[in-house]
Design brief:
Elements lengths: L14 H9 L4 H12 L2 H18 L8 H15 L9 H12 L4 H10 L23 H4 L5 E3 L8 H5 L10 H10 L10 E7 L2 E9 L4 E7 L12 E8 L1
Parallel strand pairs: 1-2
Antiparallel strand pairs: 2-3, 3-4, 4-5
Keywords: Membrane, Transmembrane, Transmembrane helix
Organism: Lentzea aerocolonigenes
Protein name: Anti-sigma factor
Length: 245
């Protein structure tokens, strides 16, 4: 996005554009102008509601372990994003294509949006396999607790991104509502659920690390003290940093 791009005109708007708005990948200034127009259009608002319902259905599925080769590709992409240097200016479409190629998604974003529009929930397997409506069994409680939490120092948060992205373990926070309360207490807003969350120890202290979406190519790393965090308790936020572009 060069800053010269105009806000797309409509209605109608494409499902792809509405899905990008819903996912929070549009530049803030574009999203701020586009969202009220989209929400004022009954057809577009129906797609947004369908996307919300689809995400809720997907989040209710048992956790599916991320394949090792996919985790390795994400780790490599994050490492490349963290390298110093000035990123070239690209259009939104080019950035979206690059993001999809890196994560091996292809047309998955459009597929999910289209599925939502028709009330269908699909689980898309990485590597171009056919969609499947069968989820792998959830790990048992004993297997989830078998490995000790990651032990990190304050300056090592970036090294844990790959592992935390593979997890959806709220640990002592237990529920998304508790996480939301802790984030609110630290004045942290997020447009969606955590991309990954896992118990860790930070400088020897029990904690929970959450990775939140922070825009195209960016991730917000938040570490919370489950014993002290909550609404109106900013002291419960032990770390809060953004990585990526």
């Amino acid at each position: 996005m060069t800053g010269m791009e105009r806000v797309p005109m409509g209605p109608p708007w494409s499902v792809d554009l509405i899905a990008d708005l819903h996912a929070g990948v549009l530049p803030p200034e574009v999203a701020a102008q586009l969202r009220p127009r989209v929400e004022a259009d009954p057809d577009a608002r129906e797609i947004l509601q369908a996307l919300d319902a689809t995400l809720e259905d997907l989040q209710a599925l048992p956790p599916i372990p991320m394949p090792d080769h996919v985790a390795a590709r994400i780790d490599a992409a994050l490492a490349a994003e963290a390298r110093p240097g000035i990123a070239p200016v690209v259009s939104l479409n080019d950035a979206r294509k690059r993001r999809n190629r890196r994560l091996g998604l292809g047309g998955a974003g459009v597929l999910v949006a289209a599925a939502a529009a028709f009330g269908i929930v699909l689980a898309v397997s990485p590597g171009g396999q056919q969609p499947s409506n069968q989820a792998k069994p959830a790990p048992t409680t004993s297997s989830q607790n078998a490995a000790p939490p990651l032990a990190l120092k304050s300056d090592q948060l970036g090294s844990a991104v790959g592992d935390v992205l593979k997890a959806q373990n709220f640990g002592p926070l237990e529920t998304p509502d508790r996480l939301a309360g802790c984030l609110k207490g630290g004045g942290i807003t997020s447009s969606g659920n955590p991309l990954g969350i896992s118990p860790i120890t930070l400088d020897g202290k029990d904690a929970v690390m959450a990775i939140l979406p922070a825009g195209l190519g960016q991730y917000r790393l938040v570490v919370l003290d489950p014993k002290t965090c909550g609404p109106d308790k900013p002291e419960g936020v032990l770390a809060n940093t953004t990585i990526g572009r």
